[in-house]
Fold this sequence. Notes:
27% strand; alpha/beta; binds 5'-O-[(S)-[(2-aminobenzoyl)oxy](hydroxy)phosphoryl]adenosine; 15 helices; globular
Amino acid sequence: xxxxxxxxxxxxxxxxxxxxxxxxxxxxxxxxxxxxxxxxxxxxxxxxxxxxxxxxxxxxxxxxxxxxxxxxxxxxxxxxxxxxxxxxxxxxxxxxxxxxxxxxxxxxxxxxxxxxxxxxxxxxxxxxxxxxxxxxxxxxxxxxxxxxxxxxxxxxxxxxxxxxxxxxxxxxxxxxxxxxxxxxxxxxxxxxxxxxxxxxxxxxxxxxxxxxxxxxxxxxxxxxxxxxxxxxxxxxxxxxxxxxxxxxxxxxxxxxxxxxxxxxxxxxxxxxxxxxxxxxxxxxxxxxxxxxxxxxxxxxxxxxxxxxxxxxxxxxxxxxxxxxxxxxxxxxxxxxxxxxxxxxxxxxxxxxxxxxxxxxxxxxxxxxxxxxxxxxxxxxxxxxxxxxxxxxxxxxxxxxxxxxxxxxxxxxxxxxxxxxxxxxxxxxxxxxxxxxxxxxxxxxxxxxxxxxxxxxxxxxxxxxxxxxxxxxxxxxxxxxxxxxxxxxxxxxxxxxxxxxxxxxxxxxxxxxxxxx
Length: 516
Ligand code: 3UK
């Protein structure tokens, strides 16, 4: 994986701009962006590898926990660990001490590289045998201070083979014990040479930006691996709010954007179409934007159309998973059917199977199974045999393939609602609600009901100006009944201020249950 830097430097030279870090701090001493060249990243990651090996006793195969915001130093640590021949264990920076203890225990981390804030949690976790080192703080033991002391001598990266484990990524699983997914060095390149090469078709002049954390493989791929593979620049936002994303696009001339459906919806409410002689033109702040990628959750056709109308850009929806590192089914260029996830990325195969592994006819729902260049390998976890069966990776999603080979997301297989004997996919009801002009966000789950088994229950966030109250609820229910089979309408509707989401943009359905 360290090869990514060598190739870009050989082709474009060390002075090429690489990482643009936006701290997101308000105007003042620390505000604004810092830019690292490819040479800076190479030099800093060499220094980190030297500190890891000569001062912290890291040897090839050791696991190093990495917990930091989306920032140049976090990326330097990622490369530094790999250059040292160690395995980088990426986690999102918001983890609390107990979660860090679980993850570090599963991964058997011997060192934790933590940004300020994460370091206290990692210390509190008290993992035996794990040394916590802060980076980006101010103390004399800070990794940055140590790097400044070791000098600029080139570090000879430990020779790894393509089948050596490079990283362990933890599932953002909303329930149960987190699962560590092992990925090889070749997997890191494989995602760049499948999705990024065939679908994104990015080049050295692109500027990437997005909101997913680097501790989530959606962010690691989209904001580090893909841009660096082609010698492009990438904007790293410590705070990836929708406002910050729009600001970054304008300020840095972003051309490729990665984020989740909710952020596209939130940005839509902030766009200012440039009305010109009655013809609404896209918001001028977005004029450099070329491609928008959405993942993490299904992109509803309604959001897709609204974004297209406002910006002229056709969002590329893609389904990825931590187990498979990145996106394996996606839309591409003009090969897009709004509301569908698209077709398998070149290099990948996908099928819809039943519980016994037999193919389900086109047009009928079944389990999504995929295989390709990256496979799922859980670290010491018996759930391996649930995810991988008969050579297929079962993502846990229910999908329909149409006769033209497009894949349509229905629901997480364990989120299908069964009400009065009907199978209802919550997302379909959510999408119907999202078409209502008053609705900003919607989450639909099945709740226990003595008569129907489960009741279709909706949680809705209304737009600020929208009317609320019982009449509004009735209106929403009638609206859904008029658009999808009436038995699917939400019999129970709760108006809420916000929906519980992971910091990767996924709706937390189990938390919706707790709201009742
Ligand atoms: C769901 C989607 C419908 C689906 C991820 C891109 O989300 C990522 O990884 P996770 O391990 O979750 C995987 C699960 O999330 N999902 C993701 N994308 C879509 N459902 N349409 C989509 N476009 O249930 C899947 O099984 O957190 C996404 C790249 C890397 C990733 N790790």
